[in-house]
C-alpha cells in the first residue's frame, strides 16, 4: 500500500500487476477491456449452478457480458481480471459514485473460478481492490455477501474487512428464495472530516 500523504494518481488504462498464488502459479491482474468479452463469457459459463443462485446478475447471458464490454466506464465500475495463460480465472469489481454523499465509498464484488479456490486467489484479489481503492482516494470498501457463503466471508475478514451488519431477507436468489446478507466494510483511508464546511 502507498504511504500516507502521497497523491495516488495513476493510469487505470495501463495498470498491470504480475504476481503469484501460494502454489507458485503466475497470474496477471489488470482492468477488463472490451476485447475480454468472449473470455469473460467462457469464464462465467463454468460457474456451477449452485453458485449462480446467489449472484446479482444472470452471468449466463451473453447479452449481459456484451453490455458490460461495450459500456465499460472505469469511473463507475472498474472490473479487475485475474488471468493465467490467457484465461480468466477470477473477476472482481469496484463500483463507485463520483459525486453525492457516497463519493468516498466503493462497493466490491469478487468471483473466483472453482478450480482456483483455496489457493489464495480470493485474498489476493481483495488486496488488489484495496490497493486500487486507496489510489482512487476512496475511504471505505463495502461488500455484501450471502451469509451462506462462509468461504467468502472468511476471505474478506482475512483481508481486513469487518462485519458491520447482517440484514435478514435483503436479497433473493435465482429461485426466489430469501437470502440474509452480511455487510462487510474495510476502512481504506481515514475520513477527511476536517475538510468539510459545516454550515448549519
Q: Globular, elongated, flat, extended or rod-shaped: what is the shape?
A: globular
Order of helices and strands: EEHHHEEEHEHEE
Largest sheet: 8 strands, mixed
Q: Supply the number of structural domains.
A: 1
Strand content: 25-35%
Radius of gyration: 17 Å
> Can you count the helices?
5
CATH class: Alpha Beta
Strand tally: 8
CATH architecture: 3-Layer(aba) Sandwich
Structural class: alpha+beta
Helicity, in percent? 10-25%
The third-level CATH topology is: Aminopeptidase
Question: Could you tell me how far the N terminus lies from the C terminus, measured between alpha carbons in angstroms?
Answer: 37 Å
* Uncertain spans: 1-8
Q: State the CATH superfamily name.
A: Gcn5-related N-acetyltransferase (GNAT)
Please, what is the average pLDDT?
Answer: 85
Strand order of the largest sheet: 1-2-3-4-5-6-8-7
Amino acid at each position: 500500500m502507498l504511504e500516507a500523504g502521497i497523491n495516488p494518481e495513476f493510469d487505470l488504462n495501463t495498470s498491470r500487476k504480475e504476481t503469484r498464488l501460494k502454489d507458485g502459479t503466475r497470474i496477471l491482474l489488470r482492468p477488463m477491456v472490451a476485447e475480454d468479452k468472449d473470455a469473460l463469457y467462457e469464464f462465467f459459463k463454468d460457474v456451477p449452478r449452485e453458485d449462480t443462485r446467489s449472484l446479482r446478475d444472470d452471468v449466463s447471458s451473453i447479452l449481459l457480458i456484451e453490455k458490460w464490454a461495450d459500456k465499460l466506464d472505469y469511473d463507475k465500475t472498474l472490473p479487475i481480471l485475474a488471468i493465467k495463460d490467457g484465461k480468466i480465472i477470477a473477476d472482481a469489481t469496484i463500483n463507485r459514485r463520483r459525486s453525492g454523499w457516497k463519493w468516498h465509498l466503493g462497493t466490491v464484488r469478487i468471483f473466483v473460478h472453482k478450480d482456483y479456490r483455496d489457493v489464495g486467489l480470493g485474498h489476493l484479489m481483495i488486496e488488489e481492490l484495496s490497493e486500487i481503492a486507496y489510489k482512487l482516494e476512496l475511504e471505505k470498501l463495502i461488500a455484501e455477501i450471502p451469509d451462506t457463503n462462509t468461504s467468502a466471508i472468511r476471505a474478506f475478514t482475512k483481508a481486513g474487512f469487518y462485519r458491520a451488519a447482517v440484514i435478514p431477507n435483503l436479497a433473493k436468489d435465482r429461485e426466489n428464495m430469501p437470502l440474509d446478507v452480511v455487510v462487510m466494510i474495510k476502512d481504506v483511508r481515514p475520513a477527511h472530516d476536517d475538510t468539510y464546511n459545516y454550515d448549519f
